[in-house]
Design brief:
- Helices cover about 35% and strands about 35% of the residues.
- With about 260 residues, it is α+β, with helices and mostly antiparallel strands.
- The chain folds into 2 domains: about 200 residues, Hsp33 domain (3-Layer(bab) Sandwich), CATH 3.55.30.10; about 50 residues, CBS domain Like.
- Strand 3 and strand 4 form a beta hairpin.
- The longest helix is centred in the C-terminal third of the chain and has 20 residues.
Length: about 260
């Protein structure tokens, strides 16, 4: 659900590292995180601090990744952490300039492994999906491993200042040993060490396209199959958007009217 037309926008800037054949994307996400917390307050929910931190890192990584991709691409990542029984979901839409995310800690299916699932849709092409197993409990290392395995190129992800992130990814003919050897201080002062050529700026905001009508569309086939099982003795049910966590209360009368209007 949209916060409002006044939700803050975040700029992601891309640079070519001359002489290194590497791409650098950078963004300060303080305003995005503020809208994320306002969204939680609006819908009356909150996450544990450690899970919250993980989601914010996943949002940052996906945003920097998406900004390096074609303009007509939409991407979504799901990161499953087996030991914590946590799923992180983040999605970014280049054409609309939107990014959202959600944390799942209930009824998380155990798989026996950590799993990174990446979905991508580019224009009218068929959707693509890839799966990568990863080790550890850190979002940063999971994303870097995803790059090396699924994207077949090296990338490094840094928080150089609080809520200020940089991703450096290899391009064709890149000296990958240079990327691998980068330290925090190297990246923090990279503009003084290397020649950076500005490429473009993209703008995103915390925004989801969910609304009550779309939620009722999801419930329509369930109502047709088992209305009593769906509502029981209750006049309404509560549901949350799986992409952003927005809460909705759907009354039986409203859903039945919605279904009848489609008949």
């Amino acid at each position: 659900m949209e916060l409002s037309d006044e939700s803050s926008s975040v700029e992601v800037r891309s640079y070519f590292v001359r002489g290194r054949n590497a791409l650098l994307t950078r963004a300060r996400l303080s305003d995005l995180y503020l809208d994320y917390y306002l969204h939680q307050g609006q819908h009356g929910y909150a996450h544990r601090m450690e899970h919250d931190t993980m989601l914010k890192e996943a949002l940052a990584a996906l945003l920097l990744y998406t900004a390096s991709r074609p303009w007509n691409e939409v991407a979504a990542w799901t990161l499953h952490f087996e030991a914590q029984a946590v799923n992180l979901f983040v999605a970014a839409d280049n054409p609309r300039g939107q990014i959202v995310g959600q944390i799942f800690t209930e009824q998380v299916k155990q798989t026996g492994r950590n799993l990174f699932c990446a979905d991508v849709v580019r224009g009218n092409q068929p959707p693509g999906r890839s799966f990568v197993e990863f080790e550890g409990e850190a979002v940063k290392s999971a994303v870097e491993w995803f790059y090396s395995q699924s994207e077949q190129r090296q990338a490094r992800f840094f928080e150089i200042e609080p809520e200020d992130y940089v991703m450096i990814s290899a391009q064709p003919d890149c000296e990958e040993g240079w990327i691998e050897a980068l330290t925090f201080e190297d990246v923090r002062t990279l503009d003084m060490r290397e020649q950076l050529g500005f490429l473009e700026k993209r703008v995103y905001r915390w925004q989801c396209s969910c609304n009550e009508t779309k939620m009722m569309d999801v419930l329509t086939p369930v109502l047709r199959m088992d209305a009593e099982g769906l509502f029981g003795d209750e006049p309404a049910i509560r549901m949350a958007c799986p992409r952003c966590g927005a809460r909705y209360v759907i009354s039986r009368a409203a859903l039945e009217a919605h279904v009848n209007g489609k008949a």
